[in-house]
Design brief:
Shape: globular
CATH superfamily of the largest domain: NAD(P)-binding Rossmann-like Domain
Number of helices: 9
CATH architecture of the largest domain: 3-Layer(aba) Sandwich
Distance between the termini: 34 Å
Strand order of the largest sheet: 15-14-13-12-6-11-10-7-16
Radius of gyration: 20 Å
CATH topology of the largest domain: Rossmann fold
Helix content: 25-40%
Bound molecules: nicotinamide-adenine-dinucleotide
Oligomer: single chain
Strand content: 15-25%
Number of strands: 16
């Protein structure tokens, strides 16, 4: 499903050529290859043997992310994958260590924080418009993806659920806006042990749930602010804003971090209401894959890329610690740290060949 968004974005970039694709179900890869003029379709074993592939974009199901990243790196290729980075921090660390040893890059979704909405909010905070950060609330509450995804089973297994599937968008956005997290405290449970697919394809098919689907957590950031996050697939409706950032001089209502833009609203000290804030940053439309383009530019320019493996690893450790905190009924300190990603230039990432050297 998601590969099309990436391929549409790559088609607008001069210095990325998609030369091969593969899927466990080869027919799916053949269909995509036909639609996007991709010359080579491989079985998985042969895919990693192709020396002309320099970078692998890993859009497999979450339980396979780690394995595919490792195979790509072992084959000497840079790798960028869908979120989460891996199923657990042990596997995540293996990926980062191997990449460091081989001098290769690892990148990870989400890259929606490079969209106009969150970039604009980052600019507002960096300009000091809301003063010193106080905290954040992040609410993703729905009744799950089975209403639109015809194969939602993987989203209810270990390595997914609302926390690992949707949490990366909210956590990455909060880290981009507030910096890294120091400590978490959480409670998690599951209200529906079986689910029915209501998407038209596969309608009526029941499946079992094997990971928590209702997760509430408190996040302590290194900058002293406190975040309150609920990720749930057990809720039919909510009136909460998806993401708000609070400061000593104002509040920002941040657009949906699963999208590239939306309305940015600001209410400053002494004002009675939020006002819409004009967006001047780039990437208003769905530009999934822009993180890959940024990574490729950064490889040529020998600079850090923004949607980095280190950022994704920090997000992974936070999510793993949220579940551990709930299971063990205690605070969990976060060992990893990452830099706040550098804000994008207003003109966005240049995608023409002439600009990369
Ligand atoms: N669908 C969305 O709207 C969406 C949005 C954002 C992110 N994502 C993420 O993108 C990833 C893919 O999701 P999707 O919705 O496109 O799922 P999908 O089921 O449409 O596609 C996943 C594909 O991966 C293949 N696959 C599984 N294991 C593999 C392996 N070991 N080697 C090669 N191929 C393998 C499957 O056969 C399948 O065709 C997931 O991590 C998901 O969380 C999806």
């Amino acid at each position: 499903m998601i590969s099309k968004s990436y391929l549409n974005t790559f088609s607008r970039c001069d210095f990325i050529e998609v030369i091969a694709c593969c899927d466990l179900d080869k027919k799916r890869a053949e269909e995509i290859a036909l639609s996007y003029n991709i010359p080579r379709v491989y079985d998985i074993e042969d895919f990693f043997q192709d020396n002309e592939i320099e970078l692998v974009v890993n859009l497999t199901v979450p339980s396979a992310h780690g394995e595919i990243h490792l195979r790509a790196l072992h084959a000497g290729k840079h790798t960028f994958g869908e979120k989460p980075l891996a199923a657990n921090t042990k596997e995540g660390k293996e990926i980062l260590d191997l990449a460091a040893k081989k001098g290769l890059r690892v990148g990870s979704a989400p890259d929606t924080f490079l969209g106009a909405g969150i970039q604009m909010c980052q600019q507002i905070i960096d300009d000091g418009q809301i003063g010193e950060p106080v905290g954040a609330t992040a609410f993703m509450m729905s009744h799950g993806p089975e209403s639109f995804h015809p194969r939602p089973q993987f989203l209810y297994q270990s390595g997914a659920g609302p926390l690992f599937d949707m949490g990366p968008y909210y956590l990455t956005a909060m880290i981009a806006l507030l910096g890294p997290v120091k400590k978490v405290t959480a409670s998690a449970n599951m209200r529906f042990t079986k689910r029915m697919i209501t998407a038209s394809e596969n309608y009526g098919e029941w499946f079992a749930v094997s990971t928590p689907t209702n997760v509430a957590s408190i996040l302590d950031f290194h900058n002293g602010s406190i975040g309150n996050m609920i990720m749930s697939f057990d809720v039919w409706g909510t009136g909460h804003e998806k993401l708000e950032i609070y400061g000593t001089k104002g509040t920002i209502s941040v657009p949906d971090p699963n999208r590239f833009s939306g309305e940015v609203k600001l209410q400053k000290e002494g004002e009675a209401h939020f006002s819409s804030y004009p967006i001047t940053s780039g990437y208003i439309d769905n530009t999934r894959g822009i993180g890959v383009i940024d990574m490729v530019r950064a490889i040529f320019q020998k600079k850090p890329h923004r949607a980095s493996g280190e950022l994704a690893f920090h997000v992974l450790e936070i999510m793993e610690s949220v579940l551990k905190s709930s299971q063990e009924a205690r605070h969990c300190n976060i060992q990893s740290i990452c830099d706040k990603p550098v804000i994008l230039p207003v003109s966005g990432i240049q995608t023409d060949q002439d600009t990369i050297n």
